[in-house]
Amino acid sequence: xxxxxxxxxxxxxxxxxxxxxxxxxxxxxxxxxxxxxxxxxxxxxxxxxxxxxxxxxxxxxxxxxxxxxxxxxxxxxxxxxxxxxxxxxxxxxxxxxxxxxxxxxxxxxxxxxxxxxxxxxxxxxxxxxxxxxxxxxxxxxxxxxxxxxxxxxxxxxxxxxxxxxxxxxxxxxxxxxxxxxxxxxxxxxxxxxxxxxxxxxxxxxxxxxxxxxxxxxxxxxxxxxxxxxxxxxxxxxxxxxxxxxxxxxxxxxxxxxxxxxxxxxxxxxxxxxxxxxxxxxx
Length: 282
Prior knowledge:
The chain is an alpha/beta fold. The chain has helices at residues 36-41, 57-64, 91-99, 135-151, 169-188, 203-206, 229-236, 247-252, 265-276, and strands at 24-26, 33-35, 71-72, 107-114, 117-124, 155-161, 193-202, 215-218, 224-225, 258-259. The chain has two domains: 21-53, no CATH class; 55-276, 2-enoyl-CoA Hydratase, Chain A, domain 1 (Alpha-Beta Complex), CATH 3.90.226.10. It is built from nine helices and ten strands. The strands form two sheets. Strands 3, 4, 5, 6, 7, 8, 9 and 10 form an eight-stranded mixed β-sheet that branches. Helix 4 (135-151) runs parallel beside helix 5 (169-188). It is globular and about 80 Å long.
């Protein structure tokens, strides 16, 4: 009888609900579909499995620095093209495309207060050409280190990088020595330097300032190393241990002092600084 039957009609385009593409994210750890606003409130840490999704440099400043105390430094520095580098796209075009996303460089530097402690902070941004370290990144970090030295403030660097920027060749490699020299001066002056390693921290950044902290902290499951696992396996012709180059593996083998949940990072850094110098109090 017709009235007991319901004919199936195919959905038309106008019948479908439009769901904005920026409402949900998929956790790379457990595969759970997460409401993006709730995820942002949790600093992009999955509430189900604790996987740490990437956050911007600005969000990391918000996480570590007390409200209304951050003052950016050297925001006007811009990269040039000393080698006239061209691969699939001229280097100036790559810079322009990255700047069009609202970023000026792969590192954000400034001063502020962390739980009432005056600090100097540099945060790398992976969204700008893979967080690569070019001459501007090295110069900004070196200048930030000199401010920490002159004002006797603890220095913090949050790293997220694919390594030295190949488009600048030897100029980018020189930044390894430049930044390490400033950190050596901080060490001689007994001014704390804390390095925070996030996913990923690789290449020339790992081989320079990222692993030179008086204390090296890392986010859970962060990939930290010089060359990638695949390159190492092909070189030594051996299979690497499970979890090789992950933060937990490095902590177990003494390369990282502590693996710290992002949401607890500010409290951990404040505790370390107060242990290092009893005078740094709110």
